[in-house]
Amino acid sequence: MDLHRVLVTGNEEIMPQTHVVDVASPLLGQSSKPGQFVHIRCGPMWDPLLRRPMSIFRIRPDGVSLMVRAVGDGSQIIAASAVGAELDLLGPLGRPFTIDPSARRLAMVGGGYGVAPLVALATEALGRGCEVVLMVGAATADYVFPADELPTDVEYAVSTVDGSLGHHGLVTELLPRYLDWSDAVYACGPTPMLEAVARITRPATFGVAGAMRSRKPVELAMEQHMGCAMGVCLGCVVMTKKGYQRVCRDGPVFQADEMIWEGSHA
Known about the structure:
By secondary structure, this protein is an alpha/beta fold. It has two domains: 2-93, Elongation Factor Tu (Ef-tu), domain 3 (Beta Barrel); 105-221, Rossmann fold (3-Layer(aba) Sandwich), CATH 3.40.50.80. The chain has five helices and 15 strands. The longest helix has 13 residues, at 115-127. The two termini are 34 Å apart. The relative contact order is 0.14.
């Protein structure tokens, strides 16, 4: 982890209240991995006081791109960063996604803003010769991630809660059709969605042919509010079979079978 002062080289609104902010930093571009994040100071003054965690959306030789949804005071300031502005950030932070060398078909599930780290993962996977299916869910068509922001070789499936685009329902309802096809599953999004992915992909779940599915890697990137993002404040802990784990340092990527969900005693 390093402290960087980086220049904003691009800022494009790709969805309502959602911007892709490009920053120049060869060091970040060379050291970042899909699933990691940066912790950004919101402005020149200490108001808001806390930095904001932002997933790394794209990784380039000369820097990284961040997908920023303007939902509060801090994220609104970052989303409005002008080209030429300077950002103060820590990164890259956290445990990234992993791709097993034997994996050839990857299924990815993104809920809303959770698509951000999966785009970087899909790009890396395609570079390794993998096939990728990305399933993305949103409340309405207005908030569906734009297909033209994806590499062209990604198979893209959409679900909306109101049925205004793609499948009418939850994005996790799309996942079963890809389970037997895939060698590994990756997801990022709200906790209820991640819990559903973990449940659907359990080895005890039977496939359409009635045969028990073999265990396959299932990695979940947790979304959590953070204070320090350095593992000190313990404000982002989640319960796992290893006890409480810090999303900022022990995650944000966890194995699905590590997690203990609220109300579960497994």
